[in-house]
Design brief:
six-stranded mixed sheet, alpha/beta, globular, about 240 residues, 8 helices, 10 strands
């Protein structure tokens, strides 16, 4: 239990809009240990991204318990959550989310502006992160001057520049061609293996999921038992078990 970096118990998220009531996640019990690289898979609308956003404290659950790095996220105020997230979480988005008017170096430096580091230290950290993702030659380039794969690597450099305890990636290869996707997956695997980073990645791509050390499936808001896929789930459901 002590080594678990993420622990959820009966985690539930409901969305109520007008007369529509959607249960995005229901009673999810999930444990992820330090140093694991977990892929969350499942069909569209299965609750994968909702779960990732709850782990990142980008959204709040409507029921259950969620402990991340020993913090009870439901007990933190919005201000405490913002500080906690900046200290502990690196988030990688499908759409890169780079700021077009900033260079690669300036984009990567951004999260450090919320720390007490001096400008010189911030730039040193940003340069180190860009070197780590293989973009030393591209530090002064703007996003429009980079390929999609390079943009995603800048986004990963931005996610790791604060040396976070947890890297969360939401469909990080979703907008990339096969070659660029492989570069990004190789990089995430390296961050996990060589640097011991705990990574949770949402993906619908079986090839991407194979880069992880463990795959967990969601279906209709429920987390399937370990080792069970949605196909098994259909069979079990059909037999009424």
């Amino acid at each position: 239990m002590a080594d678990n970096i993420i622990e959820t118990q009966q985690l539930t998220k409901e969305f109520i809009r007008d007369e529509f009531h959607v249960i995005a996640l229901k009673d999810v019990d999930l444990s992820i240990a330090k140093g694991e690289f977990v892929a969350l898979m499942g069909p569209s609308g299965s609750g994968k991204s909702t779960l990732l956003h709850l782990i990142a404290a980008m959204d709040r659950p409507t029921g259950g318990r969620i402990l991340v790095l020993g913090s009870d996220l439901r007990a933190l105020s919005d201000r405490e959550i913002a500080r906690w997230r900046n200290m502990h979480i690196g988030f990688v988005f499908q759409s890169f989310n780079l700021i077009p008017v900033l260079t690669a170096m300036e984009n990567v430096e951004l999260p450090l502006k919320l720390t007490n580091l001096k400008k010189k230290e911030r730039l040193e950290h940003a340069a180190t992160a860009l070197r780590l993702v293989g973009l030393s030659e591209r530090m002064a380039h703007y996003p429009r001057q980079l390929s999609g794969g390079q943009e995603q690597r800048v986004a990963i450099a931005r996610a790791i520049v604060t040396d976070p305890d947890l890297i969360l990636a939401d469909e990080p290869t979703g907008n990339l061609d096969a070659s660029s996707a492989q570069e990004v997956l190789t990089l995430l695997s390296r961050l996990n293996r060589e640097y011991g980073k705990t990574i949770v990645m949402v993906t619908h791509d079986p090839h991407a999921a194979r880069s992880a050390t463990k795959i967990r499936y969601l279906d209709k808001g429920a987390l399937l038992p370990e080792g069970q896929t949605p196909e098994d789930w259909t069979t079990i459901a059909a037999h009424g078990h």
